[in-house]
Amino acid sequence: MRILFTADLHLLRATREGILKRVRAWISLFRPDGVVIAGDIASASQASEALAEIRRCVPDEPIAICLGNHDFWLHGEARNECDGLPAVIDRYWVPATQASDIGLLDRENFRIGALTIVGGYGHYDLGFALPGLAYRGVAVTEEDYMRGCPSPDSPLRWRDFQLMPGSLHPRAVAFEQIRGVTARIRAAGDSPVIVVLHTPPFEELLGIPVGMHDGSPPSQYAFFRAYLGNRAMGDALRNLDLKFLAVVCGHTHRPAGPMKIHDTIGVNIGSDYGHPKAALYSFETGTLERVPNL
């Protein structure tokens, strides 16, 4: 049994057909027994259209998805219609997944053969923020991270704060995600489990350097590092004292792994806009390997 994992398809109209062509090629070449997408598929209002197109690319095999931060984006007045992430799921993604017969990991586990796929969005808890970060001698503060920019006049913006609903602190959202994921892991019982998250739970899976070492001015990615993963999720996974077959994520648009992390295989798919990537897990061999670029 083989499962194809991908992430960050970002089905924007300008690049959608090329991305879907790549998905169809993967299915034709590798003939997986199931497909799992680790978030960032489309903005919430495009959920039904995007999932219907993915289902047309994968007409016969089971599909499961978890959501990513972009999947919660709402524009204009629509942002006021949902008071938090669960409301977006209920309004947009539950109907879309049901219409296309796609499993939604943010709500329930997904069985493929003998395996259970467990996962969810994950969010970010600011735990990967770079210590001591400063721009032009001014230290970045907690208020800056909550605003989504390193200073009020900076052109840098983490757009989730303008496009995602709700006003909870990122750590509150992250901890709620942890509670949901760990509860679903426990519900899997003795089944072999692969954990699929949008945001990386381990620093090794960020796919970017740990810090700056050459004394050069910090780049925008130094500030954005705070939003790249959920460190507390990784702590929770380790504290479960369970052996997972693999942990798969995306979000950073930077590939990492496959590598051994805490007695499991970890991989960040590393898709970027218009350039989707994938990895293939073999249950028989217990291997997770990257799919060559087609």
Overall pLDDT metric: 93
CATH architecture: 4-Layer Sandwich
- What kind of oligomer do you see? single chain
Number of strands: 14
Q: Indicate the structural class.
A: alpha/beta
Number of H- or I-type helical stretches? 8
- Which bin fits the share of residues in helices? 25-40%
> What is the 3D shape?
globular
Sheet having the most strands: 6 strands, mixed
Radius of gyration: 18 Å
Widest sheet: strand order? 4-3-2-1-13-14
Range of strand content: 15-25%
Low-confidence stretches: none
Give the topology string: H per helix, E per strand: EHEHEHEEEEEHHHEHHEEEEE
Which properties best describe this structure?
alpha/beta; globular; 28% helix; Purple Acid Phosphatase, chain A, domain 2; six-stranded mixed β-sheet
Task: Tell me about this structure.
This protein has eight helices and 14 strands. It is an alpha/beta fold and 294 residues long. Strands 4-3-2-1-13-14 form a six-stranded mixed β-sheet, with helices on one face. A six-stranded mixed β-sheet has the order 5-6-9-10-12-11, covered by helices on one side. Strand 3 (63-66), helix 3 and strand 4 form a beta-alpha-beta unit. It is globular and about 55 Å long.
